[in-house]
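Pasting as-is:
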Amino acid sequence: MSTYHIHDTQVFDELNQQFANQYTVQTTIDGVPTIWVAKNNLVEILLFLRKLPKPYVMLLDLSAIDERLRQHRDGLPDSDFTVFYHLMSLERNSDIRIKVALKEPNLNVPTATRIYPNANWYEREVWDMFGIKFDGHPHLTRILLPKYWEGHPLRKEYASRATEVPPYYLDKGKQMFEQENLRFVPEEWGMKRSGRDEDFMFLNLGPNHPSAHGAFRVVLQLDGEEVVDCIPDIGYHHRGAEKIAERQTWHSFIPYTDRIDYLGGVMNELPYIMAVEKLAGITVPDRANTIRIMMSEFFRITNNLLYWGTFIQDAGGMTPVFYMFADRQKAYDVIEAVTGYRMHPAWFRIGGTAHDLPNGWQRLVREFLDWMPKRIDEYYKATMKNKVLQLRTQQVAQYDAKQALAWGVTGAGLRATGVEYDLRKARPYLGYENFDFEIPVEYNGDAYDRCLVKIGEIRQSLKIIEQCLNNMPSGAYKADHPLAVPPPKNRTLNDIETLINHFISVSWGPVMPAGESSFMVEAVKGITNYYITSDRSTMSYRTRIRTPTFAHLQQMPSVINGSLVSDLIIYLASIDVVMADVDR
């Protein structure tokens, strides 16, 4: 059986000693300690939590909810908009969620950037999507949308379908206007065009540079080949996934999740469906959970093989990527045989999986397990032992554990700094606690060590898949629950109640109970968290998607300033960037 992590509520006693009667506790379905605070107390409370003996060292997420159309708020403080902060303590292995209620027209809160530096991009995103201002923010501008954009898309009055807005057109004048707005003006970012003895050069890297792993632009301020400063510019992949979630049924949003980190496949579906299952009180059978583990680990392998191959390629080695692509195809052959699709299966379901495992799955998995380990040994020897690669990537783009936690880094980037934190061990879900595997950890925090951790993850995933193969439970592959997957066909033909449930579920989608629920998983690039709000409807009221790569890219200037341009490429290669995971 899967176990949900029980959060530490001792923090309420600690808060009471200094802030008694200055906050309100909210009970949530996911069990994350949640408090509402006044905005004039916010900074003081965030600082207090950051400095506790067992501190909340990481700002995992920061976003907002437009509450104006929400019907079922069940005694929560009166609010037009709510800003929430999700803090994480590794020592406690627990989180806390802080909420601030805002009433129109006073949509402003103090910035948290002086306490958590990674609040910078999150606050810019909230301004961009909701129009909420953060007083004292160093550069509060749009981040996902162009600076000339009108409106704030995650407000409820903003159209969510193309049929609700006039047709888009692009004439010559508009094209010139848009191009002009892409021009980088250093003074807008507080940059100088020249120093005491030299003029700086400004270099646009992107938005279509092959080293960028997606459409991404970084503007470099250069003194010769040295990076003086850099401004990462994102949003070229933004598709409005969180807005789409508000107009899709609970089931029909599943295929959209695959396209967030488009190399993570079913791993993207997992936190979403598990948050919905927690909301609905659905218990998933052991067989379905074990199938989910097996398929998730297959996608961890395909992601990490691509990462490893392109990492070598970005460092100047051409050959390995072709071999690793061929091996990815072998993994995709197994994925396709099980799910029917390769990269985006949309195969997990609320309550289980779309189908049971097909006949002959054991042979396919066994063949892959026999094939892969010796290939990894071969690649490791050819690449990671290569002196040129070592000289190119060791001591390059280094950061330590303290910096990683301050910038919200998770996954391999955090474990390469010596922090042994993996949700599959720290907060086991799906039954990971029953599996024997290790957490690969390295200690230098450089590009080379980040790659070593990823290679170690492939080896551990193979170990986990083998245990799934040898110990696959029998039984159902989906829960017998009216809010879950449709019932068996023979029951719908015999029982009118089941037929009605099936009809409503397929045509309109199930109605989920009102409330809030979140679930986080150790995805292929780090921690992915879905935080969903239901207003007792067939669709989500608000779906917040916290992705790891958004945080990783934000850290770039702090790591790369003072290095060479060529080191920037190595840094980008080492953090496993997929731009759709950043932009959503």
